Amino acid sequence: MNAFKAFKTCVPITWSPNLYITLVRGIPGTRKLHRRTLEALRLRKCNRTVMRWNTPTVRGMLQQVKRLVVVETEEMFKARKAKEANHRALRPPLVVNHLPAPPASCSP
């Protein structure tokens, strides 16, 4: 199960005041009604996210295009963005010394 499906299954959407909607499937090849619904939601390109209020109208639109989008609550969206930012964070550089090792001196 991918992360988006895991997010979708574990959160009751009706309790969240704001919904973050991400288009995860392409628009070409979809029904005209679905394209118009995505246009009304202001989703035009894949992997773009919009924030909408949680109203019955928006939930009905999402029910219609549920196979094309992923719905997240505000907490889930912030957690995902923090995880992505942490993944992209700068790490300390590796220092590799290419100089030959100093000869070991043995005194008898």
Automatic annotation (TrEMBL):
<protein>
    <recommendedName>
        <fullName>Large ribosomal subunit protein uL30m</fullName>
    </recommendedName>
</protein>
<comment type="similarity">
    <text>Belongs to the universal ribosomal protein uL30 family.</text>
</comment>
<dbReference type="InterPro" id="IPR016082">
    <property type="entry name" value="Ribosomal_uL30_ferredoxin-like"/>
</dbReference>
<dbReference type="InterPro" id="IPR005996">
    <property type="entry name" value="Ribosomal_uL30_bac-type"/>
</dbReference>
<dbReference type="InterPro" id="IPR036919">
    <property type="entry name" value="Ribo_uL30_ferredoxin-like_sf"/>
</dbReference>
<dbReference type="GO" id="GO:0005739">
    <property type="term" value="C:mitochondrion"/>
</dbReference>
<dbReference type="GO" id="GO:0003735">
    <property type="term" value="F:structural constituent of ribosome"/>
</dbReference>
<keyword id="KW-0689">Ribosomal protein</keyword>
<dbReference type="Pfam" id="PF00327">
    <property type="entry name" value="Ribosomal_L30"/>
</dbReference>
<feature type="domain" description="Large ribosomal subunit protein uL30-like ferredoxin-like fold">
    <location>
        <begin position="20"/>
        <end position="69"/>
    </location>
</feature>
<dbReference type="GO" id="GO:0015934">
    <property type="term" value="C:large ribosomal subunit"/>
</dbReference>
<dbReference type="GO" id="GO:0006412">
    <property type="term" value="P:translation"/>
</dbReference>
<keyword id="KW-0687">Ribonucleoprotein</keyword>
